[in-house]
């Protein structure tokens, strides 16, 4: 009979050794005897810390370009150029914190779920915590499978390798294997559906804790990935019964800073379009990559932006806002981006939040009303309900376009309608962790596949002479011939599992070419 290993064994697998976290974690569980104790454990170890974000996710797609101003930009350099093993800095491999963090939290969730079975008091509160646990576990496995596995394709999902799954606090084997993509999504949907049942009718604790509408919002996204459009539509409609309201950008004032900065520029003060207290926000956890003073992407207040940014909005993204409207009439280009007025090329930087406090909204684990509307529009379009899909898009756009210039778009159907919806997702959801995952699922879409080459220009900053030099450009090929749409399984996980954990297809050593 095989031995069973309690959850701490898994944490050894994840971290490689029992670090200080294990001591704190085991102490937390030792005193967790009441519903209040377990809620504290879940908030502290199951939900993402409000300082945690996965900034690398934003550097691989076509929404950002380098804006090198110092030598620290190399933090995400190898994600930006789609290197063979991106978790490398200065030729040294570092631990993949995304894998470690998410599996650590899944482990905590599994233990909380187990301990909740022993509590007979306060059944409503027990159900609520169970619902939150299932929501979080589904969310984390969604993020893992879309990072470390191929996108969902119905015909091959039963054989495509997903990620290792565990749903109990005990493990029958210390070495782990990957489940299939189909098995992974089966767990995600079953977790979310269970969460919806458990949280329905329960009081909402906080925007930082899941409620029924958060589950339905996320289900509307997951069902789109699976091509289950009726289910996506029903989930979206459930959210629209909640008390969430679209912001009207026509009501935002453009405030000009005074006095002028050191260059004599009176900057336009950025506006919070994403906020934990917003009437559009359904759920958020973790930190905001494009929020004030987050050093990795250099967002700060006022003219400080000019000195610390490392990644700017790509010209491709900037042009999207004038694709359907004349330049300047789509207010999102004004309120989503800071314009560096001291730069002759007027560089634009994504900035959707003005604060970097621990209560800011997330950039990778955020659910808000506009996404739900876009999910609904896509589901309607795929069901052939084109007029209804167009109406949903207009419901969003009327709040985003200068009122005096607003006019309804010409009616579209089929592929052209889907392309419009995809463009609207890019315009509305930039900087919120969607674009890379969307590009993957578009590439394998069963009816309207769409793939593109992406080129990233790469620069080097010489700190000794404070000079930026163009190194060359790197190309991400179209999906069919490109293994770099999938991140490698972490090296420390491959090594620990001694051949049991199969890695993804080897990514090529990409060579730079000179573009200009």
Describe this structure in words.
This protein has 516 residues and is of the alpha+beta class. It contains 17 helices and 14 strands. The chain has helices at residues 7-15, 20-31, 35-46, 77-80, 97-116, 123-148, 181-199, 212-226, 229-239, 305-308, 315-320, 332-335, 369-382, 386-397, 414-429, 435-443, 491-496, and strands spanning 5-6, 64-66, 88-89, 92-93, 170-171, 255-256, 268-269, 281-284, 311-313, 337-339, 348-350, 366-368, 454-462, 467-476. Strands 1-5 form a two-stranded antiparallel sheet. Strands 2-9 form a two-stranded antiparallel sheet. It has a two-stranded antiparallel ribbon with strand order 3-4. A hairpin with an 8-residue loop joins strand 10 and strand 11. Helix 5 (97-116) packs antiparallel against helix 6 (123-148), helix 7 (181-199) packs antiparallel against helix 8 and helix 8 (212-226) packs antiparallel against helix 9 (229-239). It is globular and about 65 Å long. 44% of the residues are buried.
């Amino acid at each position: 009979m095989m031995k069973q290993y309690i959850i701490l064994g898994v944490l050894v697998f994840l971290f490689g050794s029992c670090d200080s976290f294990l001591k704190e974690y085991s102490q937390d569980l030792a005193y967790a005897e009441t519903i209040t104790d377990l809620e504290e454990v879940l908030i502290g170890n199951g939900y993402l810390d409000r300082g945690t974000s996965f900034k690398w996710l934003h550097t691989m797609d076509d929404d950002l370009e380098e804006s090198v101003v110092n030598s620290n930009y190399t933090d995400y350099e190898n994600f930006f150029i789609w290197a063979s093993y991106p978790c490398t800095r200065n030729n040294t491999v570092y631990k993949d914190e995304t894998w470690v963090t998410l599996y650590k939290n899944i482990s905590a969730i599994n233990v909380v779920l187990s301990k909740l079975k022993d509590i007979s008091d306060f059944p409503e509160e027990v159900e609520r915590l169970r619902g939150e646990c299932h929501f979080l576990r589904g969310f984390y496995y969604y993020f893992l499978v879309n990072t470390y596995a191929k996108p969902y394709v119905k015909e091959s999902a039963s054989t495509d390798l997903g990620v290792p799954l565990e749903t109990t606090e005990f493990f029958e084997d210390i070495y782990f294997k990957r489940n299939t993509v189909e098995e992974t999504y089966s767990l995600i949907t079953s977790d979310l559906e269970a969460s919806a049942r458990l949280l329905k009718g329960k009081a909402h604790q906080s925007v930082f804790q899941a409620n029924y509408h958060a589950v339905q919002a996320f289900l509307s996204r997951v069902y789109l990935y699976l091509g289950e459009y009726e289910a996506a539509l029903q989930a979206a409609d459930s959210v629209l019964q909640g008390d969430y309201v679209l912001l009207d950008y026509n009501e935002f004032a453009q405030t000009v800073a005074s006095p002028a900065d050191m260059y004599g520029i009176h900057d336009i003060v950025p506006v919070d379009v994403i906020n934990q207290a917003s009437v559009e926000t359904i759920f958020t956890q973790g930190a905001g990559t494009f929020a004030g003073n987050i050093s990795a992407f250099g967002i700060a207040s006022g003219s400080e932006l000019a000195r610390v940014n490392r990644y700017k909005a790509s010209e491709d993204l900037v042009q999207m806002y004038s694709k359907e409207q004349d330049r300047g009439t789509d207010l999102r280009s004004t309120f989503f981006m800071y314009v560096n007025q001291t730069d002759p090329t007027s560089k634009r930087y994504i900035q959707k939040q003005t604060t970097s406090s621990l209560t800011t909204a997330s950039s990778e684990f955020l659910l808000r009303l506009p996404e739900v509307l876009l999910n609904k529009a896509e589901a309607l379009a795929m069901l052939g309900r084109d007029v209804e899909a167009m109406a949903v898009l207009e419901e969003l756009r009327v709040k985003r376009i200068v009122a005096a210039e607003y006019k309804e778009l010409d009616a579209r159907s089929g592929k052209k309608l889907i392309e419009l919806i995809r463009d609207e997702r890019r315009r509305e959801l930039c900087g919120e962790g969607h674009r890379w995952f969307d590009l993957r699922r578009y590439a394998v879409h069963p009816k309207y596949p769409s793939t593109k080459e992406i080129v990233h220009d790469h620069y080097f900053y010489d700190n000794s002479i404070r000079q930026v030099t163009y190194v060359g450009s790197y190309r991400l090929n179209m999906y069919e011939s490109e293994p770099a749409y999938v991140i490698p399984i972490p090296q420390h996980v491959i090594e620990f599992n001694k051949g049991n954990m199969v890695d993804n297809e080897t990514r090529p050593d990409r060579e730079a070419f000179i573009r200009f």
